[in-house]
Amino acid sequence: MAEQIKMPQYPEPYWRDSVSLPTFPKLDESIDADVGIVGGGIVGITAAYLLSKQNLKVVLIDAGVILNGTTGHTTAKITAQHGLIYNELIEHFGKNKASLYYKACMEAKQLIEETITEHDISCDFKKEDAYVFTNAKSYLQQLETEKKAYDQLDIPGELTNTIPLTLPIKSALIMKDQAQFHPLKYLKVLVEQAVKNGAEIYENTTAVDVEYTKHPAIITRDEHRIKCRYVIEASHYPFYDGQGFYPTRMYPERSYIIAVKTPKQFPGGMYINAESPTRSVRGATVNGEDLWLIVGENHKTGQGKSTMDHYKALQDYAETHFGISEFVYRWSAQDLTTLDKVPYIGPVTGAQQSVFVATGFRKWGMTNGTIAAKVISDQIMQKDSAYADLYTPSRFQADPAIREFTTANADVAKHLIKGKLEFTNDNIKDLSPDDATITRVNGLRTGVYKDKDNKLYAVDTTCKHMGCEVHWNSGDRTWDCPCHGSRYTYTGEVVEGPAKEPLNKVEL
Length: 508
Ligand code: FES
Known about the structure:
One of its GO terms (molecular function) is 2 iron, 2 sulfur cluster binding. By secondary structure, the protein is α+β, with helices and mostly antiparallel strands. The chain is about 25% helix and about 30% strand. The chain has a domain at about 400-508: Rieske [2Fe-2S] iron-sulphur domain (Rieske Iron-sulfur Protein), CATH 2.102.10. The strands form four sheets. Strands 3, 4, 5, 6, 11, 12, 13, 14 and 15 form a nine-stranded mixed sheet that branches.
């Protein structure tokens, strides 16, 4: 058997590796703004761009560096085809709201296109058709039902049994005229434009709370305050909950992406299958050469098999269907899904109308993130938004999602207890370099990582959000929480909230 091509040792998204981004200082004083934005991903940066254009004073902070969260790890499809969703939306919300969901996505696409034209942005934007395909007989009916939903909503689409990609399929549903781009080349220009319009950006500045009085103030970990008229939580997981109970209304999932070269030319199109495990494919061009992005293997954060196995499964898939001549990148992403699959975009609670959240994009962050920035900017500018009701985080839909609500929370309760009882006998001395284990140190459940130079890093595995026990993610070398998706580096620093504080270090 031919030896398999080696995958890159460390995760690194192609997007970040192919663009150089500006850097910004840390906030070292208290300041005033019209709008304070927390989070430098597609929502925060697009909102900073739109609002600064309206002459509002915008301050954006990021706990790390900008464009290094989910936006920096996306597949960057600009499409309204979010898997098989429209029949489900019609059933849960009715035809009008399902139609609004489609229109919102298409408006996001249009906004991106107009912005590219306005600033002449060179960001590899390319029109592509989007395909949901299946090779499972049991999904044929679902594709047909989805096509009927397209017809009801006047979405241009058709069923086919051939696609340009050399994959075995039984049927596929096409949505014409969608698009893809290089998200960081695009957002870099929006950052520059926002700064030109007077927006201030601060990196390595962590928001820990919002003080909600007449005017909200963002409180940073260094105890500085950004006093503003409006706050936008664009931090993926809302760092400030305002008693909106977000941890019980969303669940985090991880997915994996590999970027490979193959002996074949990429035929165009953007693809996702309907069945599990998810497989999604798109192309990108790097220095005139095709890069194939293969995505999938979704699972709840902190649960499931070894993370390297997920990359391996994608590699096997790519090898089988396309052949791999070079394995260039691998990376993973984390996404949040709401109970009814529609994002939460709007005031954090009914009573706190000046603090906005934008979250729960279910892996479709380019369109959902762009429309979120637009809807919130319109609300701040006191303009009517056709989509405000659809996305309002205060909605409650009595639908099958409630079952998921119960399951999601039962899952959290299970992990809260299970993690505490787990005991491992792993001896740290037997630990291989670049590996981690869970052990007990003075009775305390402790996660120990040994780096390539045999240096040990030990952390208390109790998540700082609500006390679940974190699990080792060998693919990204992070400690991940199965309950609400907080993630920490092996030294314990927060990579991803809702946790705001680092894990406690343990002396060995
Ligand atoms: Fe909520 Fe860890 S993320 S307990």
